């Protein structure tokens, strides 16, 4: 919304500037020419000045100057100014003969001095427009730099805050763990897993890549906590056939496992079999899950967008160098992901 406001303000300022140029030309011509001639020439000159300015800053400057094609930019600018200058000069002569000359001359000839005057006039407007464009670029860069510095300062402040809060929470969880360990060792183990998950979110998830063993440990902790909510035992077969020195982006495998517990577990059934496979094949990591489809659809609070969000993230990370498949077969839901290592 702020961007649109700034754009609309810039457009209004430009219209105001061109209105001032039009009025300045009109009142400059009025003492020597008639009212109609002053209006006509003021409109004509303002239009050509606008073509010079916007032709440069909208076409020549971004397509040639900014792409470091300076020589071609100078040649194109000279040809552009010459063509506009000649067109403007002949158009002014033609309008004068058509509308304001009591004795129209069928032949329209321009002297060298008239042509040069037009060229230098256009060149002046071109240089003013170029300087204006450079000034705008400077102020935009200055504003962006100030915003980056402000964001950097805010990020540092948030980082300091985030370092204080998790440490307090981890210390509290450790105290609860030791208290629980004496009375209920199983509960203490779950608290320990929760602590490891939270530490993963704080320490590992901001990284570009994490070790495969770290990601596996995170998945196992998540699965252990999810099992608490399920009445009957789950038949889980987790196949791991990849070296621990492999690295991958964090939270990349979580979506499949999360979907199993959201949509693939029948809490009323005594049988819920899950198979998870993590295998390295020819310098590619193949991750797949398979679970039974519940007889009764599991109600969900929102639309399942996890797979689509994962696909968008994979495109950003790997382009088209990945495979993501989901299918239903023999009352089973199968998902697989293959990414390069």
From TrEMBL:
One GO CC term on file: membrane
Transmembrane segments: 12-30, 42-61, 73-99, 119-141
One protein family per Pfam: His_kinase
UniProt cross-references to Gene3D superfamilies, sorted A to Z: Histidine kinase-like ATPase, C-terminal domain
Record keywords, A-Z: Membrane, Transmembrane, Transmembrane helix
Transmembrane helix as UniProt keyword: yes
InterPro entries to which the protein is assigned, alphabetical: Bact_2-comp_sensor_kinase (IPR050640), HATPase_C_sf (IPR036890), Sig_transdc_His_kin_internal (IPR010559)
GO molecular function annotation: phosphorelay sensor kinase activity
Domain Signal transduction histidine kinase internal region: from-to ranges: 156-232
Protein name per its UniProtKB record: Signal transduction histidine kinase internal region domain-containing protein
Species annotation: Chitinophaga flava
Organism classification: Bacteria, Pseudomonadati, Bacteroidota, Chitinophagia, Chitinophagales
């Amino acid at each position: 919304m702020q961007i649109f406001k700034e754009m609309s303000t810039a457009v209004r300022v430009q219209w105001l500037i061109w209105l001032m140029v039009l009025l300045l030309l009109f009142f400059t011509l009025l003492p020597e020419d008639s009212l109609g001639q002053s209006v006509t020439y003021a409109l004509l000159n303002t239009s050509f000045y606008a073509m010079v300015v916007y032709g440069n800053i909208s076409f020549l400057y971004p397509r040639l100057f900014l792409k470091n094609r300076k020589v071609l930019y100078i040649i194109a600018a000279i040809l552009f100014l010459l063509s506009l200058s000649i067109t403007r000069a002949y158009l002014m002569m033609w309008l004068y003969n058509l509308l304001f000359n009591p004795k129209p001359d069928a032949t329209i000839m321009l002297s060298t001095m008239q042509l040069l005057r037009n060229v230098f006039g256009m060149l002046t407007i071109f240089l003013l427009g170029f300087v204006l464009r450079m000034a705008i670029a400077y102020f935009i860069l200055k504003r962006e730099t100030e915003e980056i510095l402000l964001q950097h300062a805010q990020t540092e402040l948030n980082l300091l805050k985030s370092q204080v809060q998790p440490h307090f929470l981890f210390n509290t969880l450790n105290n609860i763990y030791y208290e629980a360990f004496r009375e209920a060792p199983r509960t203490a183990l779950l608290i320990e897993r929760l602590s490891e998950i939270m530490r993963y979110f704080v320490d590992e998830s901001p990284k570009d890549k994490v070790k495969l063993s770290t990601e596996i440990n995170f998945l196992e902790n998540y699965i252990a906590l999810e099992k608490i909510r399920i009445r009957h035992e789950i038949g889980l077969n987790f196949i791991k056939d990849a070296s621990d020195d492999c690295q991958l982006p964090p939270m990349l495998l979580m979506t499949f496992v999360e979907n199993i517990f959201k949509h693939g577990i029948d809490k009323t059934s005594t049988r819920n079999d899950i198979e998870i496979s993590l295998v390295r094949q020819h310098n590619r990591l193949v991750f797949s899950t398979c679970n039974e489809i519940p007889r009764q659809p599991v109600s969900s609070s929102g639309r399942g967008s996890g797979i689509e969000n994962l696909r968008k993230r994979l495109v950003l990370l790997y382009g088209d160098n990945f495979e993501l498949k989901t299918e239903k077969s023999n009352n089973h839901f199968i998902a697989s992901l293959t990414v390069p290592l």
